[in-house]
Write the C-alpha cells for this entry.
Amino acid sequence: MLRKTLFPLFTLCIASAIATCFDPSPAFPVPEWTNGGEDLSSVFDSIETQLRDLIADQKYDAASFSVEVTSSHESLWSQYHTARKRNESRPGAERVDGDSLYRIASITKVFTTLGLLYQYEAGNLDLQSPISKYIPELAVNGGEIPWHDITLRTLASQLSGLPRDFAQSDLMIGPPDPISIGLPPASRERMPDCDEDSNFDSACDGTDLIDWLRKAQPLFAPNQQSTYSNLNFELIGLALERASDKDFKTYMRDAILEPLNMTLSTLNTPSDDTHAVLPLGDNYWGIEDGVQNPTGGIYSSTNDMSKFLRYILTHYNAIAPGINWLMPASWGTGSQNFYGMPFEILRTGRILTESTRPVTFATKGGGLPGYTTLISIVPEYGLGVTVLVGCSGCGKLLSAIQEIITVELIRGAEEAIWKAIDKTHRGVYTATDDKLNSSLELAVSPSTGLMVKTFVSNDTDVLGGFVSKYLVDNSRPWHLQLVPTLLFKNESAQQGEIWRMIPVYEREEGLDRGVWDELCSTDVDILRYAGLPLNEVVFWHDDGIVELPAWKVRMSRDMREEDTLVVQN
Ligand SMILES: *[C@@H]1O[C@H](CO)[C@@H](O)[C@H](O)[C@H]1NC(C)=O
Ligand SMILES: *[C@@H]1O[C@H](CO)[C@@H](O)[C@H](O)[C@H]1NC(C)=O
Ligand SMILES: *[C@@H]1O[C@H](CO)[C@@H](O)[C@H](O)[C@H]1NC(C)=O
Ligand SMILES: *[C@@H]1O[C@H](CO)[C@@H](O)[C@H](O)[C@H]1NC(C)=O
Ligand SMILES: *[C@@H]1O[C@H](CO)[C@@H](O)[C@H](O)[C@H]1NC(C)=O
C-alpha cells in the first residue's frame, strides 16, 4: 500500500530534478524561406552596405570576394567584389561573379568525407576499421604510430593524433630565411622531395606519404585529443581510391561534383582564366596537389558551393546509417568548439539579442596562399553561407566578412521566424466540443519561444495546478515551452506538426546559482497518461486545430484572436 502511494510522487520528483534546463534548441521548426529571402531583404541590404564599406579600405585594394547565402532549396542573396588592383600581365576573370573560381582549400575535406560516407553506405569502407586495413603498407615493419587504433572515423574526426603536414609548412622553405629568425643551419634529409619541398617541381604521391608516415611519430595517442591534421584526409583519399578503384579526382567528379551539378568545380587547374580569381602576388592557382588533393585541392565557386550546401542541408541526417553528419565528434579548445567529421563547429550563446539560446554553426574553413574560404551551415535556421576571398596578405578580411554576414543574418532570421510563428501558432484555442471547458493560450516571444500562457482542461487549471505542484521547482522562474520535434503525424503530407511541452527555467540576472546549475540532462519525454505522451501537442494548421492526444482534446483557434493580430500588424 505504502509503495503504491509513493511511487507516482517519486516519478514526478525525478522529472523535476532532471528538467533544470535553459534555452532549449531548436526552438522552432526549420524555416523554409519560401519567398526567396523576401523576409530577409532588409538584412541583406544592411550586409551589402557594411561589406561595401569594409572593402573600400585601401588595405583591401587587391582583394576579391564572392559571398552567397542559400536556403535548403534556393539561393537567397549574393554579393561579389572584383579587386581594384590586379596583375596586369595575368588579371584573371574580368569581373568576379557567382561562377568565379577560387581554390577552396581545406573545404575540400568536406567533399573527401562525403566520399567516405558514400563508400561506407555502399559497404566498401567501414568507419570502425583501422586505416591500415585499407592501406596495409602503413603498418609493415612496425613504426611508431599505433595504426590499429586509427579508424576511418578517427581520421575524419581529427582524432588520429597524427602530425599536421608532411610536405608543407616547413620553415626550410622560406620566407622568412630560417637563419634570420634564429634557427640553426640544417639539412633536408628528413624532408620528402616533393611539393613545397621540391619547389613545386613534382607533387607528392601516395608512396611519398606512406614512406614518410612509416618514420613519423604520433603527436597524441589516437582518440585521445583532437588536433588539426591534413594527413588524416590524405589517408582517407588513398582509401577512397582503393575502395572505388578510381583515382581521387575521377572519384570526386563521378560521385559528387557531377551528381550535384557542380558544373565548374574541379580538381584540375581550369584550362583558361575565364573564371579564375587570380590575386596579385603569391597564390596557389595552378599548383597540383597530388596526394594532398583530398585535403585541399578543389577549385569552386559560390554558385557551386551553394548547390553543395543545399545538398547538405537536406541530407545531413540521411547519408549513411547511424550518422548525423553535422554532430560533433570531439571537443576543441574552449567550451564552444567541437570537431565534427570534418566540420569545425561553433555553438555560441552570444549571437541572439533576446536570449542566450545557443546557435550552432557547422563550418569548414580553408586557406592556401592567395585564398581564404569558409562555409557555415546553420541547420536549425535552414541556411548555408559561403565566403570565398582571393587576396594575398589580407589577413582577417574573411573573418570580418563572416562576422558581418552571420551575425546580421541569424539575428534577422530569428526576428522573421518569431513573426511567422506568431501568425501561424499564437492564439487562444478552445475545445471543439463546446460542452467542455478546455482551452490553451499560446504566446510567442523571442526570449521564451512558443509558450503556454494558460492551459485549462475540463474546468481544471493545469499550469497553476498539476505543473506548478508536481513538475517544476517553483522557487525559480519558469515557463512551459513548446519545442518542435521536427516530425509530423502525416509525414508524406507534412501535416500534424508535432511539438512537446517542457518546463524551461529562466536565467536570473546577477544570480550566481553555482557551477552545477548548468548541468542539463535533456529529457523531452516527461510523463505518460494511459500510454500516451502527456506533453505531446499536434498542430493541424490547415484546420486551425491543436490536438493534445493524452488529454483527448482537439481545440480550434479562436478567430477573434486572429482578427486582433491583423489589426496589430
Ligand atoms: C546545372 O547547372 C547549370 C549551371 O548552374 C544550370 O544551367 C543547369 O540548369 C543545371 N542543371 C540541372 C539539371 O539542374
Ligand atoms: C603577375 O603575373 C605574372 C605571370 O603569371 C607573374 O610572373 C608575376 O609574378 C605576377 N606578379 C605579381 C606581382 O603577382
Ligand atoms: C470532466 O470532469 C468530470 C468531473 O468533473 C468528469 O466526470 C468527466 O468525465 C470529465 N470529462 C472529460 C471529457 O474529461
Ligand atoms: C473554465 O475553467 C477555469 C479553470 O477552472 C475557470 O477559471 C473558468 O471560469 C471556467 N470557464 C467557464 C466558462 O466555466
Ligand atoms: C496523409 O495526408 C494525405 C494527404 O492529405 C492523405 O491522403 C493520407 O491519407 C494521409 N495519411 C494518413 C496516414 O493519414
Remarks:
- The longest helix spans residues 397-424.
- Residues 1-11, 562-569 have pLDDT under 50 and may be disordered.
- Residues 436, 458 surround 2-acetamido-2-deoxy-beta-D-glucopyranose (ligand 3) (CB under 6 Å).
- The chain is about 25% helix and 20% strand.
